[in-house]
């Protein structure tokens, strides 16, 4: 069956719902919306999204392991057949970084990969997550899409100032090679498949300076799909706000239509 799937790092669900997220949810045609960085407990997230839930959205949520960090969710028009938190990692399953849900023949996942910080323990933690998560993804089969904030710009076309970020977390050779490995294992970057040979479309812009106004962004929000799904993807759009003051997150929703 056809699906419209969106992914958005909300940069704090309680803040986002006060800035326009609820209005976006009321207007979107998406069937499934993957959320990252809710930064809230399950109770707080449900309270923030209460108007949307009253409108018929169904929420699966993985709470952050540390207060004010991470937290992922999946909003859907109907209740999934099954929901699973984590991917079998003793270190990361309780961190609020991965959640997946089954809808008929399709499994949809929401992931929030660490931002990292080159040369620090934070980057070491990111690499440990990548190693475990990568092994899990490579073992998956069937129609499966992992949507989320991967915090990695895969190629030079995926960030405006790539020359100035060659030694920055998010554009390190090891991180980019990891995306290469996932693609070699059968995953397809659906947005790039539908927008080949162009810069962007970027999905995150720093709040600092005039990054948004100048479209000096990063493309780090991906839908990686395998099975028959990549061939069913017919349209991908980054829902960039019309103006800086209309943003409700520093990310924009990335929405894909699957036949």
TrEMBL record:
Molecular-function GO term, any one: double-stranded DNA 3'-5' DNA exonuclease activity
Site (Important for catalytic activity): 221
All residue ranges annotated as the Endonuclease/exonuclease/phosphatase domain in the record: 7-251
GO biological process, alphabetically ordered: DNA repair
Family from the record: Belongs to the DNA repair enzymes AP/ExoA family.
PANTHER family referenced in this protein's UniProt entry, alphabetically: EXODEOXYRIBONUCLEASE III
Protein name: Exodeoxyribonuclease-3
Organism encoding this protein: Nocardia amikacinitolerans
